């Protein structure tokens, strides 16, 4: 099938690679010339495990252009995967989605049938709006074209985006029109039946079963996306709330997580207490869900609370540091990890960045390290903030002379540190393990003043 994808961000590019790999002829479209240049050289503008070798291996099955109108004309399926930035009031801004829909309609020609797929995370009702925009554009130019619109939300995680695309838990198609359901079922067939040869760089895990296909209406599909992210965010916030109480009563949150996670009704994942959630999805999507609620004068105290707990969590870490050090003003604090989670250079809404800003505001000097996100992180700080930050090239360098160390992102390399060597470089060996990756007893035996989250 011929597929055009508008937008080559995390979602668009991963989907383009996936679909080309399973045999489709894919065109990725972007307006960013720098990105296109990189992609045409087989280089990925995003950091994703396995993406570059695949980009190179796909050859002519995957190409990139800046001309959406022309690329849409020739396609059977056009996927819209452009950004939906957060507006001041929390709503997701769909102006780029609508603009893409208009351009796609301008490219459509009579005598062909098109399926337009909304992949971006969009407010409830956007699919209907996209269908309207396309119809209006066609009417304006007097064209009669058969088209169908479908919602096809993605559930991929940054850093594991390709893995999640090749081996999804489920595929959701929201469409009223049989044409769209038929086209998308055919497009995803190799994934649904797992008939492709797994790429060397993204092997299939043992025991992975076939992913179910959920076909539903577009509104429900749009809601599935928001509800999934909000639920995962609140699962984590719930554990962070329990972690606070665990500290008061002397329980260990990692034991509590193990104990409740084995209940199949709860499940073991997304129960890790720590600095809380960040990234481009949970913060934005929970805000957008609340914005939808407000539109209907419908209160959503649970989603609201998940967000409140997430912010509170950061202040709590700071307070912990204040009380351990008897104040942070004039102190030097090391922070390991800037990315919002490991295996990505994404620092959007990273708890680490927020905490560093609070530390600086309270008069601390901060020495930071991250294996991947240093360059990107620099832009997140103002010039005066940067003056209070030492960007260090190793975690050991970051620890030099520090009076406390905050482990903010659970990178694999931080789990393998020479903790003795690290400690020797510090002025005061205070360890605040913001992701609970170290063994408290072992660290205390080594002479660290250790504190985690909820243990
Ligand atoms: C999230 C969802 O997991 C994806 O399913 C979804 O497709 C994506 O948003 C999206 O809407 O595009 P992502 O933002 O890449 O994916 O990140 P996650 O791996 O889910 O982690 C989110 C945050 O939760 C991170 O800051 C992570 O550190 C934190 N987290 C995760 C915890 O604090 N505890 C946990 O147990 C798990």
UniProtKB/TrEMBL annotation:
Gene3D superfamilies membership: Cytochrome c1, transmembrane anchor, C-terminal, NAD(P)-binding Rossmann-like Domain
Matching InterPro entries: 6-PGluconate_DH-like_C_sf (IPR008927), NAD(P)-bd_dom_sf (IPR036291), UDP-Glc/GDP-Man (IPR017476), UDP-Glc/GDP-Man_DH_C (IPR014027), UDP-Glc/GDP-Man_DH_C_sf (IPR036220), UDP-Glc/GDP-Man_DH_dimer (IPR014026), UDP-Glc/GDP-Man_DH_N (IPR001732), UDPglc_DH_bac (IPR028357)
GO biological process: polysaccharide biosynthetic process; UDP-glucuronate biosynthetic process
GO MF term set: NAD binding; UDP-glucose 6-dehydrogenase activity
Membrane spanning residue stretches: none
E.C. code: 1.1.1.22
Binding site for substrate: 155-158, 225, 270-274, 278, 341
Pfam families: UDPG_MGDP_dh, UDPG_MGDP_dh_C, UDPG_MGDP_dh_N
Keywords (A to Z) from UniProt: NAD, Oxidoreductase
Catalytic activity entry: UDP-alpha-D-glucose + 2 NAD(+) + H2O = UDP-alpha-D-glucuronate + 2 NADH + 3 H(+)
UDP-glucose/GDP-mannose dehydrogenase C-terminal domain boundaries: 334-440
Top-level taxon of origin: Bacteria
Binding site for NAD(+): 30, 35, 84, 121, 158, 284, 348
Catalytic residues (positions): 281
Pathways involved: Nucleotide-sugar biosynthesis; UDP-alpha-D-glucuronate biosynthesis; UDP-alpha-D-glucuronate from UDP-alpha-D-glucose: step 1/1
Family: Belongs to the UDP-glucose/GDP-mannose dehydrogenase family.
Name assigned to this protein: UDP-glucose 6-dehydrogenase
């Amino acid at each position: 099938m011929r597929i055009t994808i508008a937008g080559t961000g995390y979602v668009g590019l991963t989907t383009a690679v996936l679909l080309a790999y399973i045999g489709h002829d894919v065109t990725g479209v972007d307006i960013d010339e720098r990105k296109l240049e990189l992609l045409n050289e087989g280089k990925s503008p995003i950091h994703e495990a396995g993406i570059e070798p695949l980009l190179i291996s796909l050859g002519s099955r995957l190409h990139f252009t800046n001309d959406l109108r022309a690329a849409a004309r020739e396609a059977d399926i056009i996927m819209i995967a452009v950004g939906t930035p957060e507006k001041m009031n929390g709503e997701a801004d769909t102006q780029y989605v609508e603009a893409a829909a208009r351009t796609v309609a301008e490219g459509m020609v009579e005598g062909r049938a098109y399926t337009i797929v909304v992949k971006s995370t969009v407010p409830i009702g956007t699919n209907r709006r996209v269908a309207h925009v396309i119809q209006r554009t066609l009417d304006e130019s007097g064209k009669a074209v058969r088209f169908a619109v479908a919602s096809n939300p993605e559930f991929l995680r940054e850093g594991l985006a390709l893995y999640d695309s090749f081996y999804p838990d489920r595929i959701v198609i929201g469409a009223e029109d049989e044409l769209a359901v038929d086209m998308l079922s055919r497009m995803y067939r190799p994934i649904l039946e797992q008939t492709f040869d797994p790429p060397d760089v993204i092997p299939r895990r043992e025991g992975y079963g076939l992913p179910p296909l959920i076909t539903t209406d577009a509104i429900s599909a749009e809601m599935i996306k928001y509800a999934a992210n909000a639920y995962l965010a609140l699962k984590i916030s719930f554990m962070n709330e329990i972690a606070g109480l665990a500290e008061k009563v002397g329980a260990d949150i990692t034991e509590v997580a193990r104990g409740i996670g084995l209940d199949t009704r709860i499940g073991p994942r997304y129960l890790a207490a720590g600095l809380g959630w960040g990234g481009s999805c949970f913060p934005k999507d929970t805000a957008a869900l609340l914005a939808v609620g407000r539109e209907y004068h419908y209160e959503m105290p649970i989603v609201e609370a998940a967000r409140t707990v997430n912010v509170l969590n950061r202040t709590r870490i700071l307070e912990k540091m204040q009380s351990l050090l008897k104040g942070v003003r004039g102190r030097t604090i090391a922070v390991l990890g800037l990315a919002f989670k490991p295996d990505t250079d994404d620092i959007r809404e990273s708890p680490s960045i927020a905490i560093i800003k609070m530390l600086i505001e309270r008069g601390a000097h901060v020495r930071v390290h991250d294996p991947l996100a240093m360059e990107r992180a620099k832009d997140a700080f103002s010039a005066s903030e940067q003056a209070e930050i030492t960007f260090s090239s190793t975690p050991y360098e970051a620890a030099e002379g520090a009076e406390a160390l905050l482990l903010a992102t659970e990178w694999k390399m931080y789990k393998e540190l020479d903790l003795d060597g690290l400690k020797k470089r510090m002025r005061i060996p205070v360890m605040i393990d913001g992701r609970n990756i170290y063994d408290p007893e072992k660290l205390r035996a080594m002479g660290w003043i250790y504190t985690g989250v909820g243990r």
